[in-house]
TrEMBL record:
Protein name as annotated: Probable xylosidase/glycosyl hydrolase
Beta-xylosidase C-terminal Concanavalin A-like domain segment(s): 318-514
Signal peptide: 1-19
Organism of derivation: Phialocephala subalpina
Pfam families, per the entry: GH43_C2 (PF17851), Glyco_hydro_43 (PF04616)
Keywords of the record: Glycosidase, Hydrolase, Signal
């Protein structure tokens, strides 16, 4: 018998993942309100981004465990000048909330549907998952927490609402509403529910809903998409796999090409955000799904759904070599695209004259890789002008940063904290203040700035800020306590900023951004 080497490799590649286990969370990144679905042998993942732009990131996986950023469904938040941080206005905690993404086989289009600011539902489509994505229509009815189902006969439905759950039927092109109907009013023993995801299995229709933030319920109709639906609990008050985190909930149901079923929830894990956790599902004889737990808890590990299919590590250094930013990057609000460029580094011109990082445009953010990691930038500050501030923040509604401040002819490396947003108005309640600084007397015009962060939930979490003039030895300049309240929804991010306090005209070059996990090191 003859066996070629390539045939052997092929066999190894497709053999089942016997005994191989994955760990939860599958990715320690803030990726809330997931909508996970499969097209043939590829899984896609969509998530909420609120005021970050581009919005609604798309990740791809071949095994449901290893996920890679590949794009965004919403290229710009085109819903008024506050999404541009125009003239002191802002859209913090607005924008993209729980929304839905699907592939429609009949016309080869991907559809993204989401309601913005409790009023209008926007529909974006694309001929390919990576775009180009365009806003194709809007519906004058808020599909709050939208979950799309494309039925076997190609009819499109969207389940949505809070407390009462409605199903809307879309027109044949999927771009307008044909009808809408309340299909379920949550009884008092269930309580307030939201976060709809809609599915069909074995001829029945299902709507998955969460009771935030401690339970997940499943509605089932054997009588078509408009019900009547009966409700059953999928899980309540179970322990999640992230130590110190909340109850996994508000997730998606997905099957593999082998016919196995999984539930991808998120687990509240502030200050880092809401992390995706995966568990297998079976179906009960009553036609309701059953979560596979480990000793009554959501497992910290399970067997791989499919043979592991590694993706590029998020760890590592981005040299900004391409002329476009990678899909893991998102701006705080829409950027002024005339004031930055990418290619052999990232050039950031100042866009806003302000002393407030929350008002400054063109702050570039990157999700923290938890539970601990560090972000390091190499900053060329030679072209900063008097009053400019540029550097690296740990950015949320309570923020801190390390950066370079140009005060006339002098540069200093400076640590600031106390920048806060008011948690009812999301306007600035304090622009913060300088806590420590060191003059830069003789440098090359370049400095390494590092933020180390621990976002393990259920404890007092700390960010540490360092600088280095040679990229080898790092000196700590500040530390700060992260805010682990949930109200801002989005978790902490690394944020690269450059703003003018006196006048525009200055710029910086960011030669690199390095993400390192676990990350606490004071050398190279
Ligand atoms: C999925 O597989 C079917 C059957 O092989 C094929 O016709 C179809 O084009 C595939 N869809 C996509 C989006 O790749
Ligand atoms: C911002 O204010 C300036 C000056 O008052 C005005 O010219 C400009 O139109 C305003 N921009 C927006 C987007 O409102
Ligand atoms: C599908 O539904 C039918 C009719 O209710 C039932 O007999 C059958 O067991 C179900 N199949 C699966 C795989 O759940
Ligand atoms: C389940 O709990 C038992 C008793 O505490 C323990 O011995 C066992 O290791 C646990 N199993 C797993 C998979 O954690
Ligand atoms: C936030 O704003 C509200 C409404 O203006 C105000 O009542 C409240 O005192 C503010 N809170 C803080 C902490 O500034
Ligand atoms: C990041 O890379 C370091 C060094 O190779 C490794 O020890 C660590 O496990 C990686 N972290 C992740 C989350 O992949
Ligand atoms: C930027 C700068 O001023 N560099 C100077 C630092 O000190 C060395 C040694 O004195 C000079 O050669 C550099 O020009």
């Amino acid at each position: 018998m003859k066996f070629s080497i390539s045939a052997l490799f092929c066999l190894l590649a497709v053999s089942p993942a016997l005994g191989q286990t994955f760990r939860n969370p599958v990715l320690w990144n803030d990726l809330a309100d997931n909508d996970v679905f499969r097209v043939n042998d590829t899984f896609y993942y969509s998530a909420s981004t609120m005021h970050y732009s581009p919005g609604a990131p798309i990740l791809q996986s071949k095994d449901l465990v290893n996920w890679e950023y590949i794009g965004h469904s919403v290229p710009t938040l085109d819903w008024g000048s506050k999404y541009d941080l125009a003239n002191g206005t802002n859209a913090y905690v607005k924008g993209i909330w729980a929304s839905t993404l699907r592939y429609r086989e009949s016309n080869g289009l991907f559809y993204w549907i989401g309601c913005v600011e409790f009023s209008t539902t926007y529909i974006f489509t694309a001929p390919s998952i990576t775009g180009p994505w365009t806003q194709s229509s809007s519906i004058d009815n808020c599909y709050y927490d939208a979950g799309m189902l494309i039925d076997d006969d190609d009819t499109m439905y969207v389940a949505h609402g809070g407390g009462t759950i409605s199903v809307s039927q879309l027109s044949p092109d999927g771009l307008s509403e044909v009808s809408t109907q309340v299909v379920f009013t949550s009884p008092s023993d269930v309580g307030y529910i939201e976060g709809s995801r809609m599915y069909k299995y074995n001829g029945s229709y299902y709507i998955f809903n969460t009771r935030p933030a401690d339970a997940q319920f499943v509605l089932k109709s054997t009588n078509g998409p408009f019900g009547p639906y009966v409700v059953k609990e999928l899980l309540a008050d179970i322990e999640g796999p992230i130590v110190g985190g909340g109850v996994p909930h508000q997730g998606s149901l997905v099957d593999t090409q082998k016919g196995d079923w999984y539930y991808m929830a998120f687990e509240d894990s502030y200050p880092g955000g809401r992390m995706p956790v995966l568990a297998p599902i079976t179906w009960g004889s009553d036609g309701f799904p059953i979560l596979i737990t480990v000793n009554g808890s959501w497992g910290t590990s399970y067997e791989y759904p499919l043979p592991p299919f590694p993706v590029p590590d998020l760890n590592g250094t981005d040299l900004f070599k391409e002329t476009k930013l990678g899909p893991q990057w998102e701006w705080n609000h829409n950027p002024d695209v005339t004031k930055f460029s990418v290619g052999n580094g990232l050039k950031l011109e100042t866009v806003t004259v302000t002393d407030d990082i929350y008002e400054a445009r063109n702050t570039l953010t990157h999700r923290i890789l938890g539970p601990t990691s560090s972000g390091t930038i190499l900053l060329d500050y030679k072209k900063m002008v008097d009053g400019d501030r540029a550097g690296l923040a740990l950015f949320r509604d309570v923020s801190a940063w390390i950066g370079i401040v140009n005060s006339g002819s002098d540069f200093k490396v400076s640590f600031w904290n106390g920048m806060t947003l008011n948690s009812s108005t999301w306007t600035t309640s304090s622009p913060g203040s300088e806590i420590a600084s060191v003059p830069i007397t003789n440098g090359t015009g370049k400095i390494w700035l590092r933020a180390f962060v621990d976002v393990q939930p259920g404890q007092v979490d700390t960010g540490l800020f360092f600088y280095s003039t040679d990229g080898v030895g790092y000196t700590q300049l500040g530390s700060f306590t992260l805010n682990n309240d949930w109200e801002f929804f989005m978790g902490y991010r690394y944020a690269i900023f450059n703003f003018a306090v006196i006048e525009l005209g200055g710029s910086v070059e960011v030669d690199s951004f390095s993400l390192d996990a676990p990350g606490l090191t004071t050398t190279g």
